[in-house]
Write a structure and sequence with these properties.
about 140 residues, mainly beta, Jelly Rolls, seven-stranded antiparallel sheet, about 10% helix
Length: about 140
Amino acid sequence: MGTYIPKNEIDKALASVPVKGKKLLEPFKSFAAANKLPFNILEDANVSNLPELHKTEADLWFCLEGEITFIYGGELMEPVANKNPDGTNNEMEWKGKEIRGGTEVVFKPGDWLWIPPGEPHQHNCAGIARLAIIKIPAILS
């Protein structure tokens, strides 16, 4: 079933006051969860994220506001599988210490970035950035 997202829902998300850290913005977070949508709006405010790798899904990023540094490609160093809620390893999602040999770009409003399944990526933000992220299953990418 299709889902319509009016611009005022996006505007509500972008009107929230930034808080240090990494978070999904409301009311869009709840709206996306309730409708099982594969996309969201992420806010990074003065954060340094660990590099990660998704084996079975791609990420399509669109910068809405601010500037954020992305590192993608290369090799994920010291990879560790994420944990599932039951404590078992999630072999589809990995974190690492750093990315060696990746490409670094400063992402600005209007820029898009495609991260295919299996490609390490990391984003860090010295200020505030808001990004739309769309998760795409590997079968479609």
